Each structure stands twice: as C-alpha cells, then as structure tokens.
Amino acid sequence: MQQREHLLKGHLVALLTIFLWGITYISTKILLTDFAPLEILLIRFVIGLVGLFLVYPRFFKFTSWKEEGALAAAGLLGICLYYLFENIALTFTYASNIGVIVSTSPLFIALIAAALGRQRLTKHFVLGFVASMAGISLISLNGSGVHINVAGDVLALLAALIWALYSYVVSYLNTLGHNPVQVTRRTFIYGIIFILPVFFATHGQVKFGLILQSQNLVNFLFLGLGASALCFLSWAYAVKKLGTVKTSIYIYLVPVVTVVTAWLILHEPITPLVIVGILLTIGGLVVSARQ
C-alpha cells in the first residue's frame, strides 16, 4: 500500500511539472516581445536561484569532486545546453519541428536504460511512443506539412538527447541523499555560470525597466519560481519515485498542455486534427506506461 502511495505521488508530481512546463511556452511567447530568448533564459534562472535561496538559505558545503562534477554536469546539460540548443534551433527551423523532435527524449532515455541493462525496451513502450509521436506531430504540424531543415532539426534532436542525459544525472544525484533544494540550487548556479559567456558574447542585456513592467514581471516570476525552481525540484522528485524512463513518458503531454492553454489564454483555435492528436498522444502515454 505504501509503495502504491509513493507511485501515485510520483505520477501526480510528474503531471504537475509537465502542466507548468507546458504553460511556459505561453509566457515565453509574451516575453519575446521585449526580450531575446537568451535574456529570458538567464533572467528566469536567476529568479529561480534567488527563490531557492529564500526557501532554504543554508549553505551547501563541498563534498567531493565526483559529486561536484555531477552537479556541474546537471547545470551544463539541463540548464545551459538543452535550452541553448532549443533556442538556436528556433532560428533555423520551425517551432512545430522542434515540438515534435524534442518530444523524442523519452525514447533516448529508454534506449540508454536498455544499453545500461537497467530496463528492457518493451513493445508497450515502443507502441506508445509511435502513437504519441503521431499525436504530437498532428498537434505541432496541424496540416502545415513537414519542413526539413537539417541544421535546426539536428540541434533539436541533440536537445532531446541532452535532456535524456540530464535525466540520468538527476537520477544519480537523487542517490546522494542531499537536500533537494540545495542540489537544485547548486545546479542552477552552474547552469548560470555556463550561460553567462554566451549571454555576453551575444550582447545580451538585463533590462530592469522592462522586467518590472507588470505583465513581464508576472511572466518572469512564473518562469523563475514556478517553471524553474519548483519544476526542477518536482522533476527530480518524480524521477526518484517513478524512475527515469517512466517519468520521461510524461514529456509527451507538453504539446497537449501548450495547445490547450494557448486556446484558453491566447484564444488560438483548436482544429479537429489537433483533437485527434491530443487523443493519440494521451493514448500513447497510457500504453507506454503499461511497461
């Protein structure tokens, strides 16, 4: 009974995380009017870092070079490279392509698990993956057709692989027994350190006047405190409770949440094709989870 309760908590936390991450696209779209993608990225994680310090201000002491290396790897992969590759890919290819390609991350996670001998790649997972990818393609492309751009699509594929590697680093960090707020905070610090050289090289600016405008401030607080600080904590918790592969399956739902919230907030239309895509995506998730 206790094991089932832990699993249920893991599923609910994973759902909450994906729900918040799905909304981030709406907030980011609004902020792109006044800010460059890299400016949004840096500001949101600085806000998230400040929030984590306020929640748990206790200093995290150095433990070992191995653990510090894992924390740095998590910051490099999950905070810096994933978002950088995704943002750069947007300059080469269509957002619809990226939405589909980045959602292949659960397959990479499952393939890594199979290669390490941790988990077998079952027919349920493969069938669910195919169904979900078909659904995500219908949602993202929505009748516009496939537009191939090698550079952009490869960058998006690399982003999916990077998130898979990040998930395994998180799995390792969960075994160390440290306070999760301190671990996430240290990860953010490393991520920001890795982002800063690119930020300055691209002449990024921190525009305090624009940040403090009510609409921008609300969206930055949501991205920083909710989608960054809270979600990176909750994702690590879900990985700990469910395992890396099963938690990753929820990534399929990100385009579903995005399209529904865009319909509710931005009044973007939902076509019959998108509805079919949503049903396929959710159905694929259910089938994959049966493993």
Automatic annotation (TrEMBL):
The membrane-spanning stretches of this chain are: 12-32, 38-56, 68-85, 91-113, 125-148, 154-175, 187-206, 218-237, 249-266, 272-289
Regarding the membrane, this protein is recorded as: Multi-pass membrane protein
Q: Which Pfam families match?
A: EamA (PF00892)
Question: Where in the cell?
Answer: Endomembrane system
| A Gene Ontology term for the protein's cellular component | membrane
Q: Which Gene3D superfamilies match?
A: 1.10.3730.20
Residue span(s) of domain EamA: 9-140, 152-288
Classification via InterPro entries: AA-Vitamin_Transporters, EamA_dom, EmrE-like
Q: What is its main location?
A: membrane
UniProt superkingdom: Bacteria
Keywords, comma-separated and alphabetical: Membrane, Transmembrane, Transmembrane helix
Q: Tell me its family.
A: Belongs to the EamA transporter family.
Question: What is the protein name for this chain?
Answer: EamA domain-containing protein
What is the originating organism of this protein? Levilactobacillus namurensis DSM 19117
